[in-house]
Amino acid sequence: MVHHKHFEISTLRDIYDQARKKELQELKDLETGYIKATLTEAVKCALCFQEDTRTIFEKQGFTFVQCVNCDFIYTNPRLTNTKILQDYTHSESNDIWIEILLTADQTKYNNQKYNFFLDEISRHISPPRQLLDIGCSIGQFMHLAEKRGYKCTGLEQNNKARKHAEDHYGLTVENTLVEDLDPRNTQYDIITMFGVLEHLPNPHDILHHCNQLLVKDGFLALLVPNNGSLVARMLHDKAFGVDGRNHLSYFTKRTLTMILENNGFTDINLTTRVSCIKPIGNYLNYQDPYFPNMDKMDDELVSIIPEVEKIIDQYDMGHHLYATARKK
Ligand SMILES: [Zn+2]
User: Fold this and answer.
1) Residue 216 is part of a domain; what is its CATH number?
2) Is residue 147 assigned to a domain?
3) Domain presence at residue 2
4) pLDDT grade, residue 14 (50/70/90)?
5) Residue-range definition of the domain harbouring residue 286
6) What is the DSSP string of 60-86?
7) Looking at the domain assignment, is residue 35 inside a domain?
8) 66 C-alpha vs ligand 1 centroid, how far in Å?
9) Domain count, the chain
10) How far from 45 is each of 11, 70, 128, CA to CA, in Å?
11) C-alpha of residue 45 to centroid of ligand 1, in Å
């Protein structure tokens, strides 16, 4: 993707960021500075189920830890399941996120991303087949998939997003959690989850359940933020995607491969996309990475950018981690 000069602004991310900060402030215990204990619970590593961790940083009242056994990074303690679901169905910031998805720049970007996956999926499983899109949001991916002949069902908790998918695209979307689908009643050829797995409290169980819902040799396509990206490694807690309320798991190529293998997937193929060079440049220039006061990089920084872009591509350090896999 060509990073627009003001991609964050043209896609309303500044407005989203303000609303999110306000909501996070309300979750905080003003005495301790941490998220209120009544809203949180301590959890084990979702990958290896061990409890030994080291704290890597704190942000907005959340603590981010790394598992001593397997290096997986996650939020701990984290919001309770009830609170998490509540935020997806009723919160101002999540409604603004829907507006982000409807902006011209974001729509264009997502079309590219989804068409990449559809090219990949159709190389393995040609339409018409049954496709389940978990957390389908406004239905943009399913709309493209149906145009290619796939028979799609979506799952979405957010009312505003679900309504858009139904009314605007005429899609079939259920207000159901994937764990409530019974594999004895329904089987799918393809399951997709774009920007979803990192939000879920129980990624291991969900992937296991997805495996059960797939037919033999069924196909899985995922997209998660890449915590091994150059932007994540450089910005650490300042990275936009480091968000203790929404993003509970921080996958890398290695940890995503592990969790897929542990849940019965094979032929795992991982690639990365989106250099996010602009936020890195802003940060190196002593500015806010995403919303700089002075939107101008110095000449020395500008001259290294093409070299850094090459490294990002070569070492799979892009911001998004794309994964495809097959049921074993
Ligand atoms: Zn672990």
Assistant:
1) 3.40.50.150
2) yes
3) no
4) confident
5) 7-327
6) TTEEEEEETTT--EEESSEE-HHHHHH
7) yes
8) 8
9) 1
10) 34, 9, 38
11) 5
